[in-house]
Amino acid sequence: MIKFAHLADVHVGNRQYGSYERQMDFAQAFLNAIKFCVSEKVDFIIISGDLFHKKSEIDPLTLLQVKKVLEIPKKAEIPVIAVEGNHDSTYFRENYTWLDYLAGSDLLINLKPSFDDGLVVEEWDGEGAYIDLDGVRIYGMKYYGSLTERILDEYAKKIKRSGFTIFVSHIGVEGYVKNMYGCIGSSKLHRLRGRVDYIALGHVHKAFVEDDFIFNPGSLEICDISEVDYDRGVFIVEFDGEVRYSLRNEFYKPRDFLIAKYRFKDRSFDDFSKFLRERARNLNRPVVDLTIDVEREMRLKINEEEVRKIVERACNPLLTRIHWNVGGYFTPINLDGEARESIEKSVIKQLLENYSYGDISSEVLDLKRIFNSSFNLKMVDRMVEDILFESGKDDEKDYESKIEDDSKNEDSEEDSEVWDWRSAVSKGK
């Protein structure tokens, strides 16, 4: 029998709302999850992307936390198979990532294809896209954003089934979270049926299973206030001719969130305090996210520091976020077309001052008109080309001038040896 664990979207290092305690929460969730997987005596552990919260600027504490946790399955001789998510990956041509570093430290196996006159899917040997374990073949594909569908189509042609076959990737599936960017239709993944037996995904922070074939465990912790009610956890999967699975989360309870909306009708704080106490009952040091509806005259009478003290006494929060929704500030006015366009152009002009495009505010307004009317794609393309051509003329001159200067300086510079750090890292593996 084959038994494995599947988790994703760990986001270690997420100092949510600037809170050190929240950063510790994410690390604790990872520690508890890995200890749980080891206690379940699984054959291997899959992490489907976003192990880290930031692809760069990883602080020493975050790296230490991840390394210490990954030493637990290593000591138990349980391999950890991972792919890079959008929070782990570097840019397309910058190859070396923190997951590569962990793989070089023999703490995990980081699966991803390479590109050499097309997509290359090779067996893991310090690097590679698939690995064979005892009776199991595992393929891995990192996050590719808008290129996902195209690369997935090419990747599928390279898959060769061998025993129980798993495909691991960091891909969002449409239909599970509203307005989520970078997702694909599940039909694209169902095309892998017959080639693989289990698709292990990450990216969507809500747990779901589709047709006992596509599995997404969700994030271990709450990464955004919109995720409070999501199911999440770790899939424990067994296979002995058929796939059996369960979503487990008893090993960790995410931080409590208290999300509330209150309207101040007068300056009495007694009702406000009672309102908070009722909602904070049975919550342990929650993150309080409070929206206060109030009219302008009343807002001037209410001191925010006093509000925070009441929240502190009533809820004992880890942190408090207050949003003021103040009515009565703005009165709608009707603008004629000429006045509206003048205001829009002025705003666009100010925004563009931060960039080197020059004054293209008129062209941007023209683009807006096209989008709002017929959305003629050819017209959009033509206009974008014109804008880029005009704004690129000066850049081209600067570039030619720079090349000329560089060629003059080249002869005067002494030759120096450049350390090929990528080769050194590869050999170090």
From TrEMBL:
InterPro entries cross-referenced by the UniProt entry: Calcineurin-like_PHP, DNA_Repair-Maintenance_Comp, Metallo-depent_PP-like, Mre11_N
Keyword Nuclease: yes
Residue stretches of biased makeup (Basic and acidic residues): 393-410
Calcineurin-like phosphoesterase domain: residues covered: 2-206
Disordered, as annotated region: 393-429
Keywords: Exonuclease, Hydrolase, Nuclease
Keyword Nucleotidyltransferase annotated: no
PANTHER family membership: COMPONENT OF ATP-DEPENDENT DSDNA EXONUCLEASE (PTHR30337), NUCLEASE SBCCD SUBUNIT D (PTHR30337:SF0)
Protein name: DNA repair exonuclease
Organism: Archaeoglobus sulfaticallidus PM70-1
